[in-house]
Specification:
heterotrimer; A alpha/beta (242); B alpha+beta (378); C mainly alpha (331); B: Barwin-like endoglucanases; 56% helix; elongated; C: mainly alpha; 2 domains; binds adenosine-5'-triphosphate; binds magnesium ion
Chain lengths: 242, 378, 331
């Protein structure tokens, strides 16, 4: 479970162009469910996701991760929850690597290297043996039926294939939480439905999924559990869809 | 431990792949790096080889040479001094030496002519250096006509040609008999160019030198160690001066490297952003950059030194001959004996790789601290 | 002044190291002044990023110091023919009064940089920057020394003029000469041998005790430091004699030469490695109880102790082996 309390993110604080992208957000995100953040452009969805995903530190407020402490190489005094906002970058990163998988709007695949290498990339700095994560990458590619593209360079892939490579990459380190920011923005409706199907499968495997989107295919999908609406950096509504 | 090694290996592998992917971009950097290493290495090899040549000449030199100065210029020494010097305690032998320079109008070269020991079999025979042999196209048994002081020809027969193991010293040498030396230069009788003194115990050299200076006020004893020292510092000085000139090249390379490292292409910036967003940490990217620097440096260093080796020892350093040799004699062509040791390479490493690495620390760090969430906003 | 590529290289490195030190020191000061881990402000994030830069710079400084230390000795050795009476690096360094101070400060800076990196390593393992103040105060201590090293090196090479009569290693490190290094060589063999082996024994015993029980870390650290000094004195006093197989040649630098199989590099590497780890153990002692490091520091210390023990053991074994099998026997 992820708990956010009074989370605020300001840019350029103290300067005339100060801007508060996320304003005093308090929210609980349930494990093994699909949660969707919905809101107009500029409402702070991406900013919120990047703080939850340990990519950026909030200006103030706290984030607690429960149920991941056991997987960490260090322990804060006795608690089962980790308070991540005050952690140094290398610890945030450790958590991010072991707990979160990311899917981006632009897919963000590295050009010039093969599909397989792209999928393995997040595992390089973990110190795991190459053979092990390679086997895992191959089986992920098979799972998404793109195994035949393994040695293809990513420039040549179609949008749907890119999407699946990006999902496979998000799963390579066995994360328990998947974060997707506008995952369907570059997909047609058929591929968007396919994406939601895959998300449903991931949930079935016990993963938590957190999606930011203003695509009706996503937030009207029968698969989602919770819908959170944001506006101007604040949460305006949060309801369960079950 | 094993994980740390795996991490290094994985990242190194990715580094190599990315370098190959960006061949064109890294090529100009590598080319410039290579040039700098090549020039500095050529210089270093050349100076060291010259130093060694000089050391070889001096190895055979006598422990002490006594010259005479008249009005501050070197003058002939009366051979009579030899007997008196021989009586000083500790001196084992004194040998008057005859030598001078001979100008060859045929090809504008200066040869060093020495009188050999008069025990040699034939008065007409001569030994010559390989440089002379090449310049005049001579073989053993040929006749070499020299022009005497009175324009009378002096014919000598080539008995031996010195092997070209150490060309630079023996190249311009002609050794002839004392009789022929006399016919060539017509020195006044009972005079020698200088005296070679041998002393039993090297520790007494300084004492003996002092005694000689006292005995003959116009004389100048020179110790072999003094000559060695002078040679070494002259070569070091020349090497250092040339290095100072090359420093501008080094500096511009460093600025270039800095610039290259700072001005990442949008593509690269994006790639680092992606890496950070998918879980690479700042220190992982720093490691990636570190390996990148190592690979580029080692490639440039190895290729540069190999090219320099060829330049100096196979092609006889055409780029440096004018600047560094500074010998009074025109050498038709000389071949240096290869000497390369770990010390030279270490010095080169410090002069090239260390400044390069230092110049890239801050740009690499800057690249590595890209915000991980930047990748969400492309 | 001697203008020679190696000398220029050494001066260049001194310049770079001092420059990098000042740069790192400047940010160290800012970190000490403005550090506030509770804040998520952009200023704090920027400072946290700077810590990566400082660590990187320090690891480069450490490796440059180590490499240039040996280059310095080697260059001094290479230059000895320029000085009447100098027969190896020892004589060259004695040409003016800056040579030995420059060498000593180089060693000190190397050791301090090593200790800094140990503290840095421990700090990076705690989730709340537990040692940040200590780390940057230590850096503030180190920076002036790095600058001083550069100054001494410049002063030394500027004051070196070929052909000054200097003492050579035969006299500088032999019984006739006075002065500090002469005094060290004068130290009688037997008491020195006793001091050396007992120092090694105390370090070994306290190290083992610490390794097993986790106590008496200060004793171990101090004893490893003292033993380091004793070992250096012993190299001068008797160890090198066994390697040279000459009863009067006390030079610590000739060990680095090819004639002795470059054994010196190995001997000094074990000594330096051992003492850095030993001092590091002691420096970490006060922070064993710091919350976020409570499990981490003891683990690091055990590894450091192991490094020291292995290094010193190797040094002792080689020395002992040479003493037993050397052609030389000292009375
Ligand atoms: N580094 C930054 N500096 C200044 N302002 C920023 C920065 N990053 C984001 N912002 C601002 O914060 C606000 C929220 O941005 P965010 O990307 O979180 O919105 P979003 O809800 O994801 O929008 P979209 O649906 O268009 O992706 C925007 O107005 C943006 O301009
Ligand atoms: Mg967004």
């Amino acid at each position: 479970m992820i708990e956010l309390s009074n989370l605020t993110k300001s840019f350029n604080s103290g300067q005339p162009n100060q801007f508060t992208a996320v304003d005093n957000v308090t929210l609980a995100i349930n494990p093994q469910q699909i949660t969707v953040l919905k809101g107009p452009s500029g409402s702070g969805k991406t900013s919120l996701l990047s703080m939850i995903g340990c990519m950026a530190r909030p200006t103030s407020g706290r984030i607690f991760l429960r149920g991941v402490a056991a997987a960490l190489p260090f322990r804060q005094d006795g608690a089962d929850a980790v308070e991540i906002t005050s952690l140094p970058e290398r610890f945030l990163n450790e958590i991010r690597r072991s707990t979160f998988g990311f899917i981006f709007q632009q897919f963000n695949l590295v050009k010039g290297i093969s599909v397989l290498e792209n999928v393995m990339l997040p595992a390089y700095p973990t110190g795991e043996g190459r053979a092990e994560f390679r086997a895992r990458a191959v089986s992920l590619l098979e799972q998404f039926s793109i195994a035949r593209l393994a040695s293809q360079r990513v420039e040549l892939l179609s949008g749907g294939e890119l999407q699946r490579v990006a999902i496979a990459r998000a799963l390579i380190n066995n994360p328990s939480i998947i974060i997707a920011d506008e995952p369907t923005a570059h997909l047609d409706s058929k591929l968007s439905h396919e994406f939601m199907e895959i998300v449903g499968r991931l949930k079935g495997e016990g993963k938590s999924v957190l999606i930011a989107s203003h695509d009706p295919i996503v937030f009207d999908s029968p698969l989602i559990d919770t819908l959170v609406e944001m506006r101007d950096g604040a949460i305006v509504a949060s309801r369960s869809c079950r | 431990m094993k994980r740390a090694i795996e991490r290094h290996l994985n990242i190194l592998e990715f580094t190599l792949a990315s370098l190959l992917r960006r061949k064109a971009k890294n090529f100009s950097l590598l080319a410039m790096y290579l040039m700098v290493v090549f020039m500095l290495a050529s210089l270093q090899f050349f100076v060291t080889a010259l130093k060694r040549e000089a050391a070889i000449i001096l190895d055979d030199a006598p422990d002490m040479v006594v010259q005479r100065l008249t009005a501050g210029r070197q003058d002939l020494v009366p051979t009579g001094h030899a007997a008196e010097i021989a009586r000083i305690r500790g001196v084992t032998a004194v040998r008057p030496r005859l030598w001078g320079y001979y100008y060859d109008a045929l090809n504008g070269a200066n040869y060093t002519v020495m009188a050999g020991d008069d025990t040699s079999a034939k008065t007409e025979s001569a030994s010559i250096g390989s440089g002379v042999a090449k310049a005049r196209n001579l073989a053993v048994g040929d006749l070499l006509p020299l022009i005497g002081y009175d324009k009378a020809p002096v014919m000598v027969e080539i008995g031996t040609i010195f092997p070209s193991g150490s060309d630079l010293i023996a190249a311009d040498l002609i050794i002839i008999s004392p009789a022929n030396f006399q016919r060539l230069f017509n020195l006044p009788g009972g005079q020698a160019t200088d005296l070679a003194v041998t002393v039993r115990n090297p520790k007494e050299l300084a004492t003996v030198a002092a005694k000689i200076a006292e005995l003959f006020p116009g004389s100048r004893p020179i110790l072999k160690s003094e000559i060695q020292r002078t040679y070494q510092s002259v070569f070091d000085w020349r090497g250092g001066m040339t290095l100072m000139i090359l420093a501008s090249a080094l500096l511009s390379f460093i600025i270039f490297a800095w610039d290259k490292a700072t001005g990442l292409s949008a593509e690269e910036r994006k790639e680092i952003g992606i890496l950070k967003s998918i879980g690479w940490e700042t220190s992982d990217v720093l490691l990636l950059k570190f390996w990148e620097g190592i690979v580029i440096s080692l490639t440039a260093f190895l290729l540069g030194t190999i090219l320099a080796y060829g330049h100096v020892f196979f092609l006889s350093a055409p780029l440096f001959v004018q600047a560094l040799k500074g010998w009074s004699v025109i050498y038709p062509r000389f071949q240096l004996v290869p000497v390369v040791d770990a010390y030279q390479l270490a010095v080169l490493f410090f002069l090239t790789v260390v400044p390069y690495t230092t110049a890239t620390i801050i740009p690499c760090w800057r690249a590595a601290t890209t915000d991980p969430d930047a990748a969400m906003r492309y | 002044m001697i203008l020679q590529p190696a000398v220029l290289a050494l001066l260049l490195i001194a310049l770079l190291v001092a420059g990098m030190g000042i740069y790192a020191g400047y940010y160290g000061m800012r970190i000490l002044g403005q550090w506030d881990p509770a804040s998520g402000s952009e200023g704090q994030l920027e400072l946290e990023r700077r810590t990566y830069l400082v660590s990187t710079i320090m690891s480069y400084i450490l490796s440059f110091e180590l490499m240039s230390l040996f280059l310095f000795i080697y260059t001094a050795d290479e230059l000895h023919p320029l000085f009447t009476g100098a027969m190896c690096a020892a004589g060259t360094l004695a040409v003016n009064s800056f040579g030995y101070p420059a060498l000593i400060i180089k060693v000190v800076n190397f050791l301090l940089a090593g200790v800094w990196l140990i503290v840095n390593y421990a700090d990076n393992r705690g989730y709340d920057y537990p040692l940040i103040k200590v780390k940057y105060e230590l850096l503030n201590l180190l920076v002036p020394l790095l600058v001083l090293e550069g100054v001494l090196l410049f002063a030394y090479f500027a004051g070196v003029k070929p052909d000054i009569i200097t003492s050579c290693c035969g006299s500088l490190f032999s019984h006739e000469s006075s002065g500090f290094s002469g005094d060290l060589a004068m130290l009688p063999h037997l008491p020195m041998q006793i001091a050396f082996f007992s120092g090694m024994a105390v370090t070994g015993a306290s190290g083992l005790f610490f390794y097993i029980r986790g106590r008496a870390g200060y004793l171990f650290s101090i004893s490893s430091t003292v033993t380091f000094l004793v070992a250096v004195a012993s190299v001068l006093s008797f160890i090198c004699l066994y390697f040279y197989e000459l009863p009067t040649h006390h030079c610590p630098f000739c060990l680095l030469q090819k004639e002795y199989g470059y054994i010196g590099y190995f001997l000094y590497a074990t000594l330096f490695g051992g003492v850095v780890a030993g001092i590091g153990t002691g420096v970490l002692m006060p922070f064993r109880k710091v919350g976020s490091l409570i499990r981490i520091i003891p683990a690091i210390q055990r590894r450091l102790v192991l490094v020291t023990l292995c290094c010193y053991l190797l040094f002792t074994l080689i020395t002992g082996w040479k003493m037993v099998f050397s052609a030389l026997t000292l009375g």
